[in-house]
From TrEMBL:
This is CREG1 protein. It comes from Columbina picui. Residues 23-191 form the CREG-like beta-barrel domain. Keywords: Glycoprotein, Secreted, Signal. It is found in: Secreted. Gene3D superfamilies: Electron Transport, Fmn-binding Protein, Chain A. The keyword Signal applies. Its main location: secreted. Residues 1-21 form the signal peptide. One of its GO terms (cellular component) is extracellular space. The keyword Phosphoprotein does not apply. It comes from the Eukaryota.
Amino acid sequence: MAGSLLLCTAAVLLLLAPGGAIPPPEEAARMARFVLHNCDWGALATLSAQEGLRGRPFANIFSLSDGPPGPRSGSGVPYLYLTDMEISVQDLEINSNASLTVSLAQTPYCKKHRYDPQNPLCAHIIFCGSIVKVNDSEAGIAKKALFSRHPEMESWPKDHNWFFAKFNITNIWVLDYFGGLKIVTPEEYYNVKP
């Protein structure tokens, strides 16, 4: 409980702190980085491999992190902590393609401005790509990113064979203002200063 309160307080301070202000709508790549870094979870959509749902879209919530909390500390890489026991991970074993949606609706920002989660001003980002296990050299980065935001993960049952993964981004859509989606390339996304 105290950890959740601390993370929520950190998120509020981040959104109000100098350098933590929301980017303007004309800076779509920065907006994408900002939204991902300020979100602790997202909706991951897979193509189901489950009996009765095979081939149909299936969305599930996952905790994620692109780095420890704080302005300008995110890598832009969405890291996840997964187990093969999870239904969506079973889908990913058949087809690793997925989409990931993150929204400022989970932060204090939209409530403060009284934006409905569907209002474009309550920015959300849609990433398309695939989920890949991280290699040994990247596992430490993923662990620090995830456990700094989700400390309870460290105590999750070891017999579930948890592993670190990342969302390998191939396409990015930003909805942060009226007038439709903005397309950001992965190159623009990773090259911008958050």
